[in-house]
């Protein structure tokens, strides 16, 4: 059975770091409120003229280097983003050209904060079906471009960044002892779309729009749905929460992460946390966290790693893989 094994990770964060205190001068908020309600302390914002594709290319270059590959070794690029450079072409094609890749195919996936989980699952499908042997999967966002800077309930939460993972086909036995992606679980419920959406778009308004969110309702759905999808993905792989070495959750809110880990009966020392320094970077948050933890040498070959995310749609899901 073909398995998708992680060969390299990479990430990029824009230079500009914005501390919580920055918002105190422009909004009725405090560093203490943001820290205690979200766990966020700072985030990065892209510079003027710095685009989602620029962040993605920087993350991809690091992943290629760590995998010991060059762009020509890749068959496909999948970019998860809700903040593309342009309406079209896909940001992935801009990344493809930026990396100097003359072959293969490239496209975007849009599942908001769950985008990277959907993209990983999709790339795994490309590999399992034999359409590709090596896939570069990127989550890249510039959410600072869709913030309403007068809305204290949203603009303090998000940041910009990109993370990348290279998957390669390897023959496995078809058991949970295999390395690579062992199972994926994807879900959407379009009836919940009003909880978290952008109020502009090509077809409806001809504008880009701003992010709108009913945070407390999103919060409630998040803990319940994330724990449920993590349980389902483990069941599919024939594993239990006790088998997990690392949980790499979507980094939206520390309270959501802690609540989900508690529901899964997972100690916090098995949870990768980057939310304090990155804020919520939507589809970039999981590959950023994966790459940061990889850089710190956290993952050992054979470790069971679970990722899970939820976002606008609502869409949510999880992936379990063996490092
Ligand atoms: N500073 C000070 N006060 C604030 C701020 C702020 N930045 N933002 C909201 N408040 C106020 C509200 O106006 C409200 O005041 P009121 O009682 O006078 O009306 C009060 O704080 C409580 O508001 P709630 O929304 O109930 O606060 P809550 O404890 O739920 O925290 C938060 C808000 C942090 C947004 C939380 O609901 C949350 O994190 N939800 C998840 C949202 C999320 O992470 N979305 C990202 C995309 S989806 C995902 O990634 C999971």
TrEMBL record:
Which residue ranges does the record annotate as region ACP-binding? 251-255
Residue ranges constituting the Beta-ketoacyl-[acyl-carrier-protein] synthase III C-terminal domain according to the UniProt record:
234-323
Catalytic residue list: 113, 250, 280
Q: What is its EC number?
A: 2.3.1.180
Q: What class of enzyme is it?
A: transferase
Q: Which UniProt keywords apply?
A: Acyltransferase, Cytoplasm, Fatty acid biosynthesis, Fatty acid metabolism, Lipid biosynthesis, Lipid metabolism, Multifunctional enzyme, Transferase
Q: Please give the Gene Ontology molecular function terms for this protein.
A: 3-oxoacyl-[acyl-carrier-protein] synthase activity; beta-ketoacyl-acyl-carrier-protein synthase III activity
Q: Give the CC-aspect GO terms.
A: cytoplasm
Catalytic reaction list: malonyl-[ACP] + acetyl-CoA + H(+) = 3-oxobutanoyl-[ACP] + CO2 + CoA
**UniProt keyword annotation of Lipid biosynthesis present:** yes
GO terms under biological process: fatty acid biosynthetic process; secondary metabolite biosynthetic process
Q: Where in the cell is it found?
A: Cytoplasm
Pathway(s) it belongs to:
Lipid metabolism; fatty acid biosynthesis
**Beta-ketoacyl-[acyl-carrier-protein] synthase III N-terminal domain residues:** 107-190
Indicate the family of this protein.
Answer: Belongs to the thiolase-like superfamily. FabH family.
Q: What does this protein do?
A: Catalyzes the condensation reaction of fatty acid synthesis by the addition to an acyl acceptor of two carbons from malonyl-ACP. Catalyzes the first condensation reaction which initiates fatty acid synthesis and may therefore play a role in governing the total rate of fatty acid production. Possesses both acetoacetyl-ACP synthase and acetyl transacylase activities. Its substrate specificity determines the biosynthesis of branched-chain and/or straight-chain of fatty acids.
Comment, domains: The last Arg residue of the ACP-binding site is essential for the weak association between ACP/AcpP and FabH.
Subunit record text = Homodimer.
UniProt cross-references to HAMAP family, sorted A to Z = FabH (MF_01815)
Q: Spell out the protein name for this chain.
A: Beta-ketoacyl-[acyl-carrier-protein] synthase III
Protein source organism: Paracoccus chinensis
